[in-house]
Structure formats: structure tokens, C-alpha cells
Write a structure and sequence with these properties.
The protein has 327 residues and is of the alpha+beta class. It is 37% helix and 26% strand. The protein is built from nine helices and ten strands. Strands 1, 2, 3, 4 and 5 form a five-stranded antiparallel β-sheet that branches. A five-stranded antiparallel β-sheet has the order 8-7-9-6-10. A hairpin with a 2-residue loop joins strand 3 and strand 4. The protein is elongated, with a radius of gyration of 33 Å. Pfam families: Sigma_reg_C, Sigma_reg_N. InterPro entries: Sigma_reg_C_dom, Sigma_reg_N.
Length: 327
């Protein structure tokens, strides 16, 4: 055998498969594939997550704007939550994948001062409100989902569940050095200006607007509806839609129209349901503004004196605080 043939045979012998080497080669191949898959997955995730965040910011900036959802939430509470206001600087907004969290504080006027009423935490996934948490700081439990008779402000033809005579006795038993928030149901429909003139020694803070359905609190479809209304006192809070408003009534009507395309979200945000904005807007535009009940605040003695007014039908005591009336 010449030298060339010896070299060929040697190469064949060295490359010959040895069964004992098989499992080791298979294991190395599997490990190598696993690491390739892991590294590929990590690479894809590192690319997808920033992309998803960019899409989220883009959606809330240009699709359904974050400020739009914030506007819907705040305006809904102004018209459905009597005697409340919000502070712009109290709004906290956080974004996560395809979602936005909105947190803010709500305040009530009791006497001359404003006190924390509730803390709201809202979570939106894209355009849908998926979670709502309320932390109430109030002493009273206010009706949430209304029935036809559990309203704190009642139309002259509407019956109520609470005992108004008992409420007057509760008011009489309060110390003189207190200021009170009270819900007043009227004996007829009035212009807000008439009510303010008759109740000159207290602040009329919120007026419930008559929309043609409050006798029964049922919509034309037979659904229980919620009271709606607007703040009466000037509100210079920067975030308030009534800031520098020349007519709170017209601002209120404009707010209803702005909320109508987002009525489903508004009903989810509000503790009350079934706003039925279309038919109520139509009634107000045709018939104008009248109120059947108001929220007032002031010294205990001045609230008591309202019982002498013929226009006062029912009273429901709200929040009570120590004296802060500086007038």
C-alpha cells in the first residue's frame, strides 16, 4: 500500500461514527437549539414591548385622547354628583400596556370650606372602563343605583323613602356651632334665581334640572333615570367647566351634548345610571330650565329657617362640619 492509500484509510478511520459519541452530540444540538429559541424570544419581546407602549401612547394621544376620557369623567361627576367639584392638580394619569389609570379627588362645599368627598381610581383598557374604585370620605351614605323613590331630591309629585320630619328633628338637634349641607325638595318648579332670592342667607350650591321625566324618574323606555343638574355658585377652580361661565345653565346644556357620544362611559363613571341624554337634551332645548330641588349649605340656624318657606317641601341632611362661616 502506497503512502496515498494509507492517508485515505487513516482519514476514514478518524471520521468513523462511534456510537458512544451519539448522545453527547444530540444533547449539544438540543441545548444549542434551546438557547437560540430563548435568545430569539427575548429579542422579539424587547422589540414588541416598546412597540406596544408606543401604540398605547399613540392611541391615547391621537385616537381616544387621554384628556377626552378625563373630561368625560369630570363632567359626568359635575352633573350627577350634587355639590361637588374637582381640582385639576389632583389628577394623576398613568399608562401601561393598552391601558390608562386615572386617579383624582372630589370635594364638597360644606359651609364656607371645601372638604374631601371621594377618591376615584379609574382604569381604562383602550376606550373601555374596566375597573372603578371609590374611597368615600363622607359620613353619609348616598344612594348609588337609584330606584324611583330613593332620590334625595324629589319632584313635587314624587314620593320619597326617607322620613323628612325625622330629618328636620336631626337638624334641630345639631349644635348651633355647625354648618350643614342639606338637600331641599321644592313644592313646585322654579327658576334657580327665584330659589336663590328666597334662600339668600345660605349658599345654593347645586340645582337639579327638570327634564320632563322626574315625576316618575322613568325614561320613555321605562328605565329608571338619575337626577342631573349643575353647580349654582361661581366656580373658579381651574379644572371646572363652569370657570368663567357667563351662564351655568348654557354650560350645563353644552356639557350634556359633549357627553352624549360617550354616554356609555359616563354611565359607568357615575355612581348613578341611565342618563338618557338624548331625550333630556331635547326637552331642555324646547322647554328651558327649571329646578325641582337644590342643595344648600350654611349655618345650622339658617338651614332650619328654610322650613318657613312655602317652596320647601322636603329636607334631607347631608354632611355636617364645625363652624367655618365667616360672613
Amino acid at each position: 500500500m502506497d503512502a496515498y492509500e494509507k492517508l485515505i484509510n487513516k482519514a476514514k478511520n478518524e471520521s468513523e461514527f462511534r456510537p458512544s459519541d451519539g448522545p453527547k452530540k444530540v444533547k449539544r444540538a438540543i441545548n444549542s437549539s434551546k438557547w437560540k429559541i430563548i435568545l430569539s424570544t427575548i429579542t422579539v419581546i424587547l422589540l414588541i414591548v416598546p412597540t406596544c407602549y408606543m401604540l398605547t401612547f399613540g392611541y391615547y394621544a391621537f385616537g381616544t385622547k387621554s384628556t377626552t376620557l378625563m373630561d368625560v369623567a369630570s363632567k359626568t361627576l359635575y352633573i350627577t354628583e350634587p355639590n361637588t367639584t374637582l381640582e385639576e392638580m389632583e389628577f394623576d394619569m398613568d399608562f401601561s400596556l393598552f391601558s390608562m389609570n386615572l386617579a383624582f379627588e372630589q370635594y364638597k362645599q360644606i359651609g364656607d370650606d371645601f372638604y374631601p368627598a371621594k377618591h376615584y381610581d379609574l382604569q381604562f383598557v383602550l376606550n373601555d372602563l374596566v375597573e372603578k374604585n371609590e374611597d368615600s370620605k363622607l359620613e353619609k351614605v348616598y344612594p348609588g343605583y337609584p330606584t324611583q323613590t330613593n332620590q334625595w331630591i324629589a319632584h313635587p309629585k314624587q314620593m320619597i323613602e326617607f322620613d323628612s320630619a325625622k330629618e328636620w328633628r336631626v337638624l334641630a338637634g345639631l349644635p348651633e356651632e355647625t354648618v350643614v349641607e342639606a338637600y331641599i325638595s321644592l313644592d313646585n318648579l322654579y327658576r334657580v334665581e327665584e330659589v336663590e332670592t328666597a334662600m339668600e342667607n345660605v349658599d345654593v350650591t347645586w340645582a337639579a334640572v327638570y327634564t320632563g321625566r322626574e315625576e316618575t324618574m322613568l325614561s320613555s323606555d321605562g328605565d329608571v333615570i338619575s337626577p342631573i343638574g349643575y353647580p349654582v355658585q361661581p366656580d373658579e377652580t381651574y379644572w371646572s367647566p363652569f370657570r368663567e361661565s357667563t351662564s351655568h345653565e348654557e354650560t350645563f346644556l353644552e356639557m350634556l351634548k359633549e357627553l352624549q357620544p360617550y354616554e356609555r362611559i359616563a354611565e359607568e363613571v357615575s355612581p348613578h345610571k341611565n342618563l338618557e341624554l338624548e331625550e333630556r337634551i331635547a326637552y331642555i332645548e324646547e322647554q328651558g330650565f327649571e329646578t325641582y330641588g337644590v342643595v344648600v349649605t350654611g349655618p345650622k340656624s339658617e338651614i332650619e329657617s328654610l322650613r318657613e318657606l312655602d317652596m320647601v317641601r322636603y329636607l334631607k341632611v347631608g354632611e355636617v362640619k364645625l363652624w367655618n362661616w365667616a360672613r
